[in-house]
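Researcher: Let's walk through a ligand-bound prediction step by step. First, I give you the protein sequence. Second, the SMILES string for magnesium ion. Third, you return the three-dimensional complex as structure tokens. Ready?
Model: Ready.
Researcher: Here are steps one and two:
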Amino acid sequence: MGFFEKLKNGLAKTRKGITEKIEQVLVSFGKIDDELFDELEEILIAADVGIGTTMKITDNLRKKVREGKITNASEIKNLLKEELTRLMETEDSGLKLDTVPSVILIVGVNGVGKTTSIGKLANYYKNMGKKVILAAGDTFRAAAIDQLRIWANRVGVEMISHSEGSDPAAVIFDAVQAAKARRANLLICDTAGRLHTKKNLMEELKKIYRVIEKELPGADVETLLVLDATTGQNAVAQARTFSESTNVSGIILTKLDGTAKGGIVIAVKSELDIPVRFIGIGESIDDLQPFDPREFIEALFS
Ligand SMILES: Nc1nc2c(ncn2[C@@H]2O[C@H](COP(=O)(O)OP(=O)(O)OP(=O)(O)O)[C@@H](O)[C@H]2O)c(=O)[nH]1
Ligand SMILES: [Mg+2]
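Model: Step three, the predicted complex:
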């Protein structure tokens, strides 16, 4: 299956939740009036686009309708597509991972899909010709380390780990040394979503940063926050918490295949101004795709 087909399949539920409903409304309305905008707002809010973002969208639509003197509801669809794409687009050109090694730190609460996404990312970057090393920085339970090892073996990359309960920052320290020694391009670090001790998770993450900064001064470090699309607005709240104490540079939004409320993609970028970098659209190894707003909207509306 091609890349775009895969994306379309992964978004099947959201297409039912957003696109099909919007198309029904546009067909049944014919002319553009306040009631039509009310219906559109309802659909977008129900799909987790968020109230603030939804209002921004419909305000702009109203303005464009006035300016363009559009009278036919069917023309709204293209305007909406443009508007949604614009809200998700970023100025920059993506992740910066130029130094050897560079680091991706994966953070997020438990169960969102961190370890799975690391496996998929490792495969993605390995296929791009990068030498990848994984760090089993989630020492909360032995199973977490085993799970990452299974991915490392599947992808065919090296993994650095300590035993369960050990200091995550010490794992990262060793992994950095290994990455330097092997001249790896990319070190991808798993972290815990919760801890053994009462010690604050954010403090633990700061300690990991200090290790990376000290051992790899000047290295490109991207912190990707993993959010579960099926948790809706809760995901936005998690992003706020993590950005307060970590330098979140991008989002991996997982499990988009499992929700009809894929509007969360739009809310995340628009409400937090953190770019979505990858989306998870299934459980297999190639079900993680770099996020491209234009492609996403095309897949959603085609
Ligand atoms: N359908 C679907 N399932 C996913 C996706 N990403 C992850 N999962 C599933 O979500 C579950 C949790 O994934 P993990 O990678 O273990 O999550 P985690 O954040 O590492 O969890 P903890 O280590 O417990 O904190 C697994 O069953 C994954 O297969 C996705 O994009 N789509
Ligand atoms: Mg995990």
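Researcher: And what stands out?
Model: The chain has two domains: 3-88, 102-301. The chain has twelve helices and eight strands.
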